[in-house]
Design a protein that fits this description.
Helix 2 packs across helix 3 (76-88). The protein has a single domain (7-239), classed as Rossmann fold (3-Layer(aba) Sandwich), CATH 3.40.50.1820. The chain has 9 helices and 10 strands. The two termini are 23 Å apart. The chain has helices at residues 21-29, 51-65, 76-88, 133-139, 145-152, 160-168, 192-202, 216-219, 223-239, and strands at 7-10, 34-35, 70-74, 92-96, 111-112, 115-116, 124-125, 158-159, 179-184, 205-209. The model is unreliable at 111-117 and 241-246 (pLDDT under 50). By secondary structure, it is an alpha/beta fold. The strands form 3 sheets. Strands 2-1-3-4-9-10 form a 6-stranded parallel β-sheet, sandwiched between helices. The protein has a two-stranded antiparallel ribbon with strand order 5-6.
């Protein structure tokens, strides 16, 4: 597998491709490009945006990236990536604290930017409009002040329809590719027990970072280390020489 194979990254609810900036730097140093666009509302507006609308965007990104890119997703983006993977047949799939699909016990994602969500179909969850720096700090406990300010300035509103559909369960077909599920041991939104159950269901490798919360693998002090660990896993798995990670 050539290092030129790009990594297509799908961000979480209320966020954007900016979540992957630290990972992009780590992978760029290894000669692998990171493609991390923002998910966009449907033409009818954010309140009318469905999970399928976001999923179609992920499919488009991967098609534009070339044959068999690597696909990664975090939180809601993890569920989107998993949902699209069987169709896309990526070279590998990386799921970071992913919202689980139907059939895996889960707690729904409850907070972003420090605010309880209102995940009603047809509603807009006002994470961007009602964000606060204090709430962001509480939500990003493992992040330094600079990362909290960076995220605070960028939170956006989210589709209540998409979140309600994710909460109610999205059926997925397990993809046939190497899969890594990365969970944070302190994640209160998607507990590591859920990540482990999902990894077992998918036949995936599983790594739990004990001190990490929900967003720490992307934005926290440990983000670069997490990206390095994933990069090493990809090199091993795509070369066909890796044993499952523990």
């Amino acid at each position: 597998m050539q290092e030129r194979t790009p990594l297509v990254c799908v961000h979480g609810a209320g966020a954007g491709g900016w979540e992957w900036a630290i990972w992009a730097r780590v992978f760029a140093a290894r000669g692998r490009a990171v493609i991390a666009p923002d998910l966009m509302p449907a033409d009818a507006g954010l309140a009318a945006t469905h999970f399928a609308d976001y999923r179609a965007q992920v499919v488009h990104w991967c098609g534009a990236a070339g044959a068999a890119p690597i696909l990664a997703g975090a939180s809601l983006g993890g569920l989107l990536a998993l949902s699209a993977a069987a169709q896309l047949r990526p070279a590998a799939l990386v799921l970071v604290n992913p919202l689980p699909p139907a059939g895996v016990l889960a707690r729904p994602l409850r907070r972003a930017a420090g605010h309880v969500q209102r995940e009603r179909p047809g509603a807009i969850v006002p994470w961007g409009r009602s964000r606060s720096l204090g709430g962001t700090r509480r939500a990003l406990e493992g992040c330094d002040d600079a990362a909290c300010l960076y995220a605070y300035r960028r939170w956006r509103d989210e589709s209540g329809t998409v979140l309600a559909e994710a909460r109610d369960g999205v059926a997925v077909e397990p993809p046939r590719c190497p899969i890594l599920v990365l969970s944070g041991g302190r994640d209160q939104e998607v507990p590591p027990s859920v990540g482990r159950a999902l990894a077992t269901r998918l036949g995936a490798d599983f790594v739990c970072t004990p001190a990490a919360g929900h967003v720490d693998p992307l934005l926290g002090r440990i983000a670069a280390g997490c990206a390095e660990r994933v990069a090493a896993w990809l090199s091993l798995r795509l070369d066909g020489a890796a044993a499952p990670m523990r």
